[in-house]
Amino acid sequence: NFLKYFLLLFHHYCYCIYNYLATSFIHSCPSSCRCSPQGAAICIGSTITDIPPLPVHTYLLQLSGTNMNVINEQSLANLDLLLRFGLIKSHLHTVHPRAFLVAPQLKSVKLSSNDLSTLPSRVFSPLATLEQLHLDGNQFENIHPDMFEGLGGLQDLDLSRNKLRSLDSDIFEGLSNLTFLNLGRNFIKKLPPTIFHSLTKLQQLILYYNELEFLEADIFDKLINLVELKLHHNQIASLPPKVFWPLGNLKTLTLSSNQLQTVPEKSFYNMPKLIKLTIYKNPLLSLPDELMGHMPDMTEFYLYATNLITVPGNLFANMSGLLMLNFHLNDNLRDLPPDVFCCLPNLQKLSLKSNNLHYLHPQLFSKLTNLKKLHLNDNKLYGLPENIFKGLGEILEILLTNNNLSSLPGDIFVSLPALMNLTLSGNPWGCNCAIRGIARWIRHNEHVLWDRDDVMCHNPVYQLLRTVGSLRDEEFSFCSATRAKSFPLQDLSWSPTQPLHSLSTSGQTSGLTSITTPPTTATQSKQAAFQTTQGATQKVTDKITTQTVKHLFMSKLFKLKVPNTGNKYNTHQPNNSYLTLQPHISVKASSNSRCML
Ligand SMILES: *[C@@H]1O[C@H](CO)[C@@H](O)[C@H](O)[C@H]1NC(C)=O
Ligand SMILES: *[C@@H]1O[C@H](CO)[C@@H](O)[C@H](O)[C@H]1NC(C)=O
Ligand SMILES: *[C@@H]1O[C@H](CO)[C@@H](O)[C@H](O)[C@H]1NC(C)=O
Ligand SMILES: *[C@@H]1O[C@H](CO)[C@@H](O)[C@H](O)[C@H]1NC(C)=O
Ligand SMILES: *[C@@H]1O[C@H](CO)[C@@H](O)[C@H](O)[C@H]1NC(C)=O
């Protein structure tokens, strides 16, 4: 009995295998396709002009880069198990009105990147269980209002990258299960007010790269489940007040690259789940005092390429979870309210680079106790308050390159235990008494100053080739302590009372050294200065940086001769890098330069 049972089972098993082999032999994978054992077939190539015979259990078919320009009445016949059909990048231009009648089981149809400009009315309507329809990358200029009729189960509709200019107000009616709608990269100028009102399950709405000029006040009213709304790269010049208020579940809202000059007050209230909001690249002139509602989950915010001159003091106050704030590249941004960074206890990176900042309030950064990176480079800062960085106990990096700083308070960077990267080059450092303190700090913290070789004296003229870090304390010995301390920031004028003979460094082999001899009397030194100027030739054997050369040319006080090297300036060979300086200076004595460095 057991043997009989076993043989029967064995026979049945063999029969099954035979059957399977036979059917797959009849419809084996065509040569232009790759077929997976599970039933996915991917077919690529211009030799394909119609759907090839496929293994019967094929449930997914994707044709790409083919010459199949038409889907006709029988193209999809005999593929009863097919659920997902794609024909992409194939110059498809015609779909037969009954093309999908033979395959009502389809759940996904992708006809992306073809030449379709029109479709027969209700061509997809036999697909009662269709969930995904991609018509992106075609030539549609408009879409017939009944195109999606009967597709109540549709979840994902992509109409992007077409030439759509307008849409009928009822076109999405009945698509109550739609969760994703992409209308991006078309030429849509205007949307009917009720166009999205059936889409109560919609989660993602993509409208970017269109020509929208305004939004109807109640256009988003029914989109209570929307999570992502992308409106960037349009021409939107104004927003109706409260247009986003129904969107209480929104996590992403992009409004960048539009034409907004202002935003109505409280526009971003009632969006407690927001994690991304973009309003950069708008010609914003001002922002209202109340704009951002409670949005504790927002971790990054970008505000750049605007015309803002200043911002309301509480602009970021409700973004309590911010880790990174890039508030930069605003050409006109000149003033920051003292408390604008009041409420960002977690902020780690603050970029304020390339704005038009001249001055910063002493308390501006005082609450940013967790800040690690602060970028202030490429502004017009002409000075900094002594205590501006106080409290930034975690700060690792401060960039101050390319400002208008001639001096800094000597202890501005003390008590920043974590500081390991500071940049100060590209500033017109005035190497006079006022710089004594910071020069000392630099000497003791060389490793922190990333660009120390380019932090050059900009004046007085005789100090031009020196780095601030090379100034030695003895050189300031005649500056009175009080004088040095109280030296105001604006003292940029170089002191001409310096005896220039002290600069003659010919014969020195290392280090640009100037020996500063305190002047005996003002008159004497003035004379000496003038005389030496006439014939002074100076060999500089210090390391010459491009910054140095830039300084020299910019100051227009010297003719630069570089012997033996032609025009090429070699910064690495000390023997090639000496300069002959012929100063063309008209020395002007200033009788009130009391600190005679
Ligand atoms: C919409 O989705 C729900 C739940 O997923 C489903 O029960 C319903 O049948 C769908 N509606 C249509 C018209 O397919
Ligand atoms: C912060 O958000 C709350 C709640 O949304 C709101 O009442 C308050 O006015 C907002 N503050 C600012 C400065 O906008
Ligand atoms: C310091 O900052 C400069 C300027 O941004 C950067 O190039 C450099 O990599 C930084 N160095 C360190 C050690 O972080
Ligand atoms: C730099 O600051 C000085 C005053 O300290 C000012 O006269 C000058 O115009 C400023 N330069 C720029 C480019 O802002
Ligand atoms: C520079 O010149 C000195 C003296 O002329 C010579 O001893 C030295 O080797 C030269 N250095 C280089 C890098 O050419």
TrEMBL record:
Classification via InterPro entries: Cys-rich_flank_reg_C (IPR000483), Dev_Immune_Receptor (IPR050328), Leu-rich_rpt (IPR001611), Leu-rich_rpt_typical-subtyp (IPR003591), LRR_dom_sf (IPR032675)
Top-level taxon of origin: Eukaryota
SMART domains in alphabetical order: LRR_BAC (SM00364), LRR_TYP (SM00369), LRRCT (SM00082)
Gene Ontology cellular component list: extracellular matrix; extracellular space
Keyword entries, A-Z: Glycoprotein, Leucine-rich repeat, Repeat, Signal
Signal sequence segment: 1-16
Record protein name field: Si:ch211-117l17.7
Keyword Transcription: no
LRRCT domain mapped to chain residues: 427-480
Disordered: annotated span: 503-535
